[in-house]
Design goal:
The structure holds 2 protein chains of 2 kinds.
Chain A: H1 3-34, H2 41-57, H3 63-83, H4 97-111, H5 119-142, H6 150-172, E1 187-189, E2 192-194, H7 196-218, H8 220-230, H9 232-237, H10 242-264, H11 274-288, H12 294-314, H13 319-325, H14 327-337
Antiparallel strand pairs in A: 1-2
Helix pairs in contact in A: 1-7, 1-8, 1-10, 1-11, 1-12, 2-5, 2-6, 2-10, 2-11, 3-4, 3-5, 5-10, 7-8, 7-10, 11-12, 12-13
Chain B: H1 8-26, H2 29-54, H3 62-78, H4 93-115, H5 122-140, E1 150-151, E2 156-158, E3 161-163, H6 166-188, H7 191-197, H8 203-208, H9 213-239, E4 241-242, H10 249-262, H11 268-292, H12 299-313, H13 317-326, H14 329-332, E5 355-366, E6 369-380, E7 383-388, H15 395-402, E8 410-415, E9 418-419, H16 425-431, E10 433-435, H17 448-453, H18 464-468, H19 473-490, H20 505-518, E11 523-527, H21 535-550, E12 554-558, H22 562-568, E13 571-576, E14 579-584, H23 586-590, H24 593-600
Parallel strand pairs in B: 7-12, 7-13, 10-11, 11-12
Antiparallel strand pairs in B: 1-4, 2-3, 5-6, 5-8, 8-9, 13-14
Classes of the chains: A mainly alpha, B alpha/beta.
Chain lengths: 345, 604
Amino acid sequence: MNLQIVMLLGQDGLTNGAIYALLALSILLVFTVTRILLIPQGEFVSFAALTMAAMQGGTPVRLGWLLLALALGGVVMDLYAAYRPGGRRRFAARALVMPVYAAVLAAATTLLPLDGIGAAAQAALTVALIVPLGLTLYRVFYQPIAGAHSLVLLIVSIAVHVVLVGVGLLMFGPEGARTEPFSDSGLQLGSVMLNSQTLWVVAVSLLLIVALYLFFGKSLYGKALRAAAVNRLGAELVGISPELAGKASFALAALIGSLSGILIAPITTIYFDSGFIISLKGFVGAIIGGLASYPLAALGALFIGQAESFSTFWASSYKEVIVFTLILPVLLWRSVSHKGAEDEE
Amino acid sequence: MTMAKLSNTARILLALVPVLAALPLVLPTYQITLANNIGIFSLATLGLILLTGVGGMTSFGQAAFVGIGAYTTAYFAVGVDLPPVLAWLGGSPWSGLLVGLALTLAVAALLGALTLRLSGHYLPLGTIAWGLSLSYLFGNLEFLGGHTGLSGMPALSLFGIALDRAEGLFYLIWAVLLVAVLVTLNLLDSREGRAIRALRGGQRMSESMGVNSFRAKMTAFLVAAAFASVAGWLYAYTQRFVSPAPFSLQAGIDFMFMALIGGVGHVWGAVIGATAVTVLKQGLQDWLPHLLGRTGNFESIVFGLLIVALMQWAPGGIAGWLAGRLGSHRRRNAPAVPAAADPLPRRTLPKPGELVLEVQRVTRKFGGLTANNNISFTVKAGEILGVIGPNGAGKSTLFNQLSRVDTPTSGEIRFRGHAINGLTARDMAGAGLSRTFQHVKLLPTMTVLENVAIGAHRRGTKGVVAAALRLDRDEEARLLAEARRQLIRVGLGDLLHVEAGSLALGQQRILEIARALCSDPCLLLLDEPAAGLRHLEKQALATLLETLRDEGMAILLVEHDMDFVMGLVDRVFVMEFGQRIAEGLPETIQTNPAVLEAYLGGVE
C-alpha cells in the first residue's frame, strides 16, 4: 500500500462517509423528534437514485403513482378521522393539495420525455417526488400510532421498509442502475486527482449541514422541532402540533435521503434494495453518537466510511462484517458507562 | 393431578397430542413437509414470544441464531472438513446439537451483555447489524461452503431409529416443539418468570424489590436463542442441506412477523403465526406473480401492510383476538396455592430500640436546586417516624436516596450500621429495606398474588432450569404461600386471583405494602400509603402498622393525612423547601410555630 492507494481509499471513504453522515443526521433528527427509528430512510436513497436513472435511461418513472396512492390513502384516513363517530366533522380542502400535486406529478413524469431535460432538472424533479413521499409515509403509517410504545413504532418501521423494498422491486425491477456523473472534470491536488463527484458530495453535504444548523438554530420552525424533540408534551401545550413536527421531520429526512441518492448514484450501482445497507451505515453512525449527539453521529459516520473503504482493500468480501462489527466496541463502551434500570413508556 | 386442576394451555397441549399423532397417517408427504417447516418456524418464533411478547424486547437476529444451529449441525454431520482435534465429534447428530447450542448461547450472551443494559433500541439495531454480518459470513467462509452452502448431510438417526422420511421427522419436530411450549409455560409460571414478566413497564419497581432486571432480560434472550438453535438443528436435518439464504435478516424479520401475526402475548401465538404466515406465503407466491405479471419477493408487500394494519387495530394478533372472544384470559393466570407450605426462613430482626437507619447531613442538589439540605435523623427498630411537609418539600427525593434509586450529593446514610454508598436498589432490598411508591407501580395484567410474590423474589433461589423442569415447585409453593399470608394480613385475602389493574387505587396501595412485607424487611418506607383510602380502610392500615411496629419493624412514613399521622407515629420530622424545620413528638409538633406557619401561613 503506497500513498497513492491511501489517498484513493481515503477519497472513497470520504465520499461514502459524507453520505453516511447525512443519513445519520437525518435518522437522528427523526428519532429525537418522533421516537421513530426511520429504517425506511434507505429507501429514499435508492428510490431517488433509481428514479434519476430511469429518467436518464428513458424508462418509465413510476414513483409518482406510489406517491399518488399514498396521498389518496392519507385523504381517506383524514376523511375517516373527521367523520367517524366523535370526529370533528370538518374536512379542510387543504388536505386535497397533496393528491392533486401527486396526480399532476405522476401524469407529468409519465407523459413528458425526461431524458433530455438535463441533470439539474431531473434532480429537482426527483426531489419533488421524494420529499412529499416522506410526508405521506408519515401520515399514512405513523401518524395513527404516534403515541404508541417505541417497540411498536420500530416494528412499523421495519414493516414499512419491507413494503417499500417490495414496491421498489415492482417499480424499478431487479436490475441495478447508475447515473451519469455531474461533470467530468476533477481537481489535481499534488499527485492525487480528486474526483469531481467527491467534491460534489463533500460540498453538498457541508451545505446541507450548514443549512440544517441554520434551520434548527435560527428559524421558528426549526426551534419548534427542537422543542418537540426535547419535550413532546410541553411542546404540544405551547401549540406545536406533534403531527406537524412528525411530518416536517419526515419531509426533511426524505429531502436528505433523496439528495444522498442523487449524489451516490453516479458512484455506486444502486439496486432496489441497496438503500437499506447504505442507511444502516448511517444507523451505525447514529449509534456511535448514542442516538443523541449530532456531531458524534456525523464523525462516527465519517469514520465508518473510512473503515469500509480500507477494509475493501484488505478483506473485500468481509467489509460489511467489519463495518457492522464496529458497533460492538461502541455498545460495550455505552453499556459500561450506563447505570440503572429504567422503564420506557 | 386431575383434569380440573390443569390450566387451559395444558388442556390444549393434551388435546393436540392425538391430533398431531394422527396427521402423518392421513396427510400426504407434501403436507407433512409443510407441517415440519411450520413446526421448526414455530419453535424459533416461540423464542420471540418470550422475548418480545413477555419481556418487551425486540430482536431481528432469531434467524441468525437458527443459522448457527443449522450450520454447526451440517458441519459436524458432514464431518469432512473437521480439524483433527474435533474429528471424534464428526457424524454424530448430538455433537451438532450441543456444539450448536454452545456457540449460539455464547454469541447471544455477548450480544446481550453489550445491548441489554441500554435502552430498548439497541437490541433490535444490534441484532439487525449482527444478522446481516452473519449471513455475509456464511456466504464468504470457505469451510462453510460459501454461497453454495453445505450439502451431502446424512439422514438423522437417533438411538438407532432412522428418521430419513418426513413422517419420522414430523414426530420429532412436533415433540420438541411441544416440550419447548411446556418449558416456556413452566418458566413463565415461576420466580424467574415473574421477573421476566415484570420487565415490561415494571423494571424500576422490580429492581427495588430485589429483582435483577438485566439478568431477567438475559435469561429471556438466551432461552429464545436456545430455541432458535434447536430449530436450526431440526432444520438442517429436514433439508439435509444448508445455505445462507434461510438465515438472512429477511428471515429474522419473517420470524418477528410470525410472532406478531400469531399473537405475541400467547405461547400458542407462535404456532398460529408460523402456520398462518407459511400457508399465506405459499398462496401469495402462487398467485401474486400472475397478478403482477412478474416474479419476485412481492408477498413481503402484503405481509408488511398486514403488520402495519395489525399494529394499528389488533396488536394482540390472532391469539389475542381469539382470547378476547373466548374470554380465556380471565382464568389464565391462577396458580394454585397449596394450603400448607413450610414458611420461608426469616432474617434476624434488629432488637427493639436498635438503630436501623441513620441519615447524617444529607444534601441533594439538582443543578441550582437544593432538594434536600443538610438533613439528619435516625429511625430505630420498633418505631414509626412520620415525615411530613408541604408538596415540594423534598420528601420523595429523600426516599429515593434511602432506597438507593438516587445518590446524595453529600452526607452519609447508614443502614443497620453500614454505609450504603455504592449499593444498588437491589442490594438495599436484600439488606432488609423495602418500600412502596407514591405513584403506584404494579403490573396490571398479573394477578394480585403474583404481584405480591415479586416482593419475595430474593427469598427464593431456584433458577431457570429448575423452573423449566418443575423442580422449583416446593419453593414456589412457599413463595406463593408467603404472598398469600401477607395479602391476608393486609386485608386483600379475597382478591388473590384478580388482575391487579382492576383494584381500586386504595387497594393497590395496600397491595404495595403486602409486596414490601413479602421481602421480609426490617425497615419499611411507605410513601403516602393512606392516600385514596376510605376511613375504615385507614383505621385498618393504622392497626396493621401498629402491629408491625410492635413486632420490631422500623417504619418511615410519608403522609399528608395529619389525623392519620398524628394518631400513629412515635416521632415526626417536618420538612419545608428541603430543610428540616422541626422534629419531635406529635403533640409538640402540632403546636410548633414554624410548622404552623409552613402549613397554615404565618400569623401577621
